[in-house]
Amino acid sequence: xxxxxxxxxxxxxxxxxxxxxxxxxxxxxxxxxxxxxxxxxxxxxxxxxxxxxxxxxxxxxxxxxxxxxxxxxxxxxxxxxxxxxxxxxxxxxxxxxxxxxxxxxxxxxxxxxxxxxxxxxxxxxxxxxxxxxxxxxxxxxxxxxxxxxxxxxxxxxxxxxxxxxxxxxxxxxxxxxxxxxxxxxxxxxxxxxxxxxxxxxxxxxxxxxxxxxxxxxxxxxxxxxxxxxxxxxxxxxxxxxxxxxxxxxxxxxxxxxxxx
Length: 260
Ligand SMILES: Cc1cc2nc3c(=O)[nH]c(=O)nc-3n(C[C@H](O)[C@H](O)[C@H](O)COP(=O)(O)O)c2cc1C
Known about the structure:
CATH topology: Rossmann fold
Shape: globular
Structural class: alpha/beta
Number of helices: 6
Bound molecules: flavin mononucleotide
Radius of gyration: 18 Å
Strand content: 15-25%
CATH class: Alpha Beta
Helix content: 25-40%
Number of domains: 1
Distance between the termini: 59 Å
Number of strands: 8
C-alpha cells in the first residue's frame, strides 16, 4: 500500500492502516491518531497540524476540505498513487484531505436501495462527502468503464439526495483514470465524468488518463514523469480553486446588505 500523505491521519476506527485517512485536524469523527505507517509522505510533514481536541469551528473559517475516493485494493495500485499525487496538489494550497482508498472501498457492502442500515465504513464515506468542499475521484479502467468498486461507492451517495447540497452539488470533482490502454482510459474518464454530472458535481476542466502499461512509478512510488505528476497536482489545485471561489462568493452574499 502506498504510504499516505503527510497531512492525512487515520480515522479512529478498527480499520487496519491504509484503509481510510483523515486530515490532521479535529473533525466530526472526533480526534484522530497519527497514522503508524506513514513513511515516505510523512517525511514531508512540515505543515502538520496536531489535533487539538477543540470543537470544530464555523464552516466559513475551516480549511478547504477535499475528499479523495478511489484506487484498487491491489498492493501498489497505480490508481491510488495517482490519486495521492492529486491530493498533494490540493494540499499544496493548504486544503485538508481525506482518502478513501481501494482497500477501504472494498469493505463497503454492495449498495442496495432498499437497505437502510449503514455500516461504519458507509457512514464514514457519506459523512466525509457531505462535509467536502470538493472531491478527487480515481478509478482504473475496467472493460472500458470505471471499476464496479468505485461505482458502488458512488451509488452510496444516494444517501445525500435530500441534503441542502444534494449529492455533489456545488463541488468540483477532479477525475482520474488509470488503464493499461488509451482507449479504456478515455471511455472510463467520460463515463466517470457523466456520473459526476448525474450527481450534480462539476468535473474540473482538466481530467487525467494514465497509461499504466509502462513503468509509471519509480521504486519510491513517485511518478517518473514530471508532466504527469504536474497534471495530477493541477487537477487537485483546480478542485481547491473552485471551492475557494464558491466560499468567497458565499461570504460576499452573506455580507451584502438586505434590501427592504
Ligand atoms: C477486470 C479488469 C478489467 C480491465 N479492463 C481493462 C480495459 O478494458 N482496458 C485497459 O486498458 N485496461 C484494462 N485493465 C487494466 C487496468 O485498467 C490497469 O491495470 C490499471 O492500471 C489497474 O489499476 P491499479 O494499478 O490501480 O490496480 C483491466 C484490469 C482488470 C483487472
